[in-house]
């Protein structure tokens, strides 16, 4: 079936469907004026976005929820038209904390359920009210990670009707297999959200996840903003000469070409932008398609290097990026 602005979903292993393009809502709360995320989500729904990616850690789920609820109340969409993904943060991985964390997200959103709830990282931190717990020397305080126990608590959240589907983020193959091979597995992870773009195409993880019917959701599909914690050794993706030349051919932007590349590979993309023009532009990827030769050429850009390395947690026993994939 051809992808269109109105119909561009991918089937999940549990029978539900996820739109191939969504809006990322990550924002630094210190730099983002109040109400910015609310306005962006409201506009995104008007543009045609139906997939919103959020997290408790972004400190803006109350704004996302307000935008969704108002759009429903105004008759622009039904609740079931919107696909919302929330995330379980590292300090809530102890099984008894999983449901309360999801309930907090639902309270902030003021919604009855989320469509997808995922483990944000396979690394547990010390439980408590501090999201980034550190000792007196400024070293992060970790907690014993039991991904199978955390997963069982997520399965209970599905049974309780708090989330429709469950998945993971930043998991490598070994960590996925821990869950997939868990005795008594009730619900498989439907998705794995990882960094994915033309400079980091994830060929091996993508192939493995396809075999296991796990959808890859690509974050940073346009590279990343040049934040201090990002790997700045990689040049900005959107200045790449090949992407620029293909964009010129189709009268598109390099961002649109990068997004189109991933959605043609059936990789879900969640570009983050609160800029109205860019949000509109990022959604205009259904009126052109890349040829097989162009897809191969873009695949050839893969540098196998991450923008998002999370090196501050490299000493965590479950740091996921030490393994090839």
Automatic annotation (TrEMBL):
GO molecular function, one term: Delta4-3-oxosteroid 5beta-reductase activity
UniProt xrefs under InterPro entries: AKR, AKR1D1, Aldo/ket_reductase_CS, NAD(P)_OxRdtase_dom_sf, NADP_OxRdtase_dom
Residue ranges annotated for the NADP-dependent oxidoreductase domain, each copy included: 21-302
GO BP term, example: bile acid biosynthetic process
Binding site for substrate: 143
Pfam families in the cross-refs: Aldo_ket_red
PROSITE patterns reported for this sequence: ALDOKETO_REDUCTASE_1, ALDOKETO_REDUCTASE_2, ALDOKETO_REDUCTASE_3
Active site: 58 (proton donor)
Sites marked Lowers pKa of active site Tyr: 87
Signal peptide: none
Similarity comment: Belongs to the aldo/keto reductase family.
PANTHER family in alphabetical order: ALDO/KETO REDUCTASE
Protein name: Aldo-keto reductase family 1 member D1
Organism: Erpetoichthys calabaricus (Rope fish)
